Amino acid sequence: MTLLDLVLEPLQYDFMVRALLATVAAATVCALLSCWLVLVGWSLMGDAVSHAVLPGVVLAYIVGAPFAVGALAFGLLAVALIGAVRGTSRVKEDAAIGIVFTTLFALGLVLISVTPSQTDLHHIIFGNILGVSGGDLLQICLLAAVALAVLLLKRRDLTLYAFDPLHAQAIGLSPRLLGALLLGVLALTAVVALQVVGVVLVVAMLIVPGATAHLLTDRFGRMLVIAPAISVSSSVLGILLSFWVDASSGGLVVLVQGAVFALVYLVEPRRGLLGRAVSARRRRRQGRRGQGRRGQERARA
After folding, report:
1. pTM, to two decimals
2. CA 226 to CA 261: how far, in whole Å?
3. Cα gap 38→184, rounded to integer Å
4. C-alpha dihedral (181, 187, 193, 198), degrees to nearest 10
5. Nearest to 104 by CA among 70, 77, 142
6. So what's the pLDDT on residue 271?
7. H helices then E strands: how many in the chain?
């Protein structure tokens, strides 16, 4: 069997085609958003929102509503609660995030444990991308399109907010509204990625692509291209690997993204660990050669 046959074999199955399309949609919007989250320093906020949506999904199942409705409602609720705790008490932001997201996540686990269901609700936690239906795929693509449109239309304002909120305020923009908009998109994007990798691993898709792109370039415009390229290619490879080795799809998607980050972290010429070591060794050699030449010149003089 050739490499082409290995790649094309999964595409013979409708569930694999739906899984790949849903993964590409989620990976694209997550990667774009991750660029702003990395710059603003909201990695923990992404973790909080992604975990806080769990009780909303379970409650939506109980009342027969779409999962996305409940997840989005609790994602926005988590953002509001974090802001309220931080703004009305002495509790700092990181502590407020930890309190809110762990409490809501625990509520979701309790609801799962007491809810009689013919559906395995644990798929919400760990993802079930191979079980995505046509309706689920449509929902994922629509939500991803909305989040993508907001990010692209407001990219300049959001970028200025990420780099210099004071400058944004000086030219008439509202940092508070831009922050709220970014948090709203975060909640929406967490819902998109929920069915791909589950609640536990959503934060990886929201952080790893942007962090990897940040190691590769200093220009934000390039980050917005590099991050989706890395995220989509890694996610597609993860889905195909899950078919070939019969392992967790969501886990392999995140594992491949993590492997790409590790590779860039090690070998990127300017910022990679090995690249910096090679550069430092080269500079030391050049320094010794320079000292040797100066010594020879002094000896001849």
Report:
1. 0.81
2. 12
3. 16
4. 160
5. 77
6. 67
7. 14, 0
CA 243/CA 7 separation, integer angstroms = 10
Rounded-to-integer distance, Cα 79 and Cα 223, Å: 26
Q: What local confidence, expressed as pLDDT, does residue 226 receive?
A: 94
The CA-atom distances, in angstroms, between 187 and each of 48, 57, 80, 111, 156 are 10, 13, 11, 21, 20
- Rounded to the nearest angstrom, the gap between the alpha carbon of residue 282 and the centroid of all alpha carbons in its chain is 36
Rounded Cα distance between 270 and 277, Å, is 10
Which tokens in the block code for residue 51? Answer: 């975990």
3-state helix, strand, coil in the chain (%, to 5): 85, 0, 15
Question: Which residues lie below 8 Å from residue 291, measured CB to CB, with a gap of 6+?
Answer: none
Backbone phi, psi, residue 154, to 5°: -110, 20
CA distance 47 to 35: 15
pLDDT at 246: 83
The structure tokens 């060794």 sit at 281
SS3 64: coil
Q: Comparing C-alpha atoms, which of 104, 34, 39 is closest to residue 76? A: 104
Taking 70 as the pLDDT cut, the residues of the chain under it are 1, 3, 117-123, 126, 269, 271-272, 275-280, 282-283, 286-301
φ and ψ at residue 252, rounded to 5 degrees: -70, -35
How would DSSP label each residue in 207-275? HHHHHHHHHH-S-HHHHHHHHHHHHHHHHHHHHHHHHHHT--HHHHHHHHHHHHHHHHHHH-TTTSHHH
Contact yes or no for 275/216 (Cβ under 8 A): no
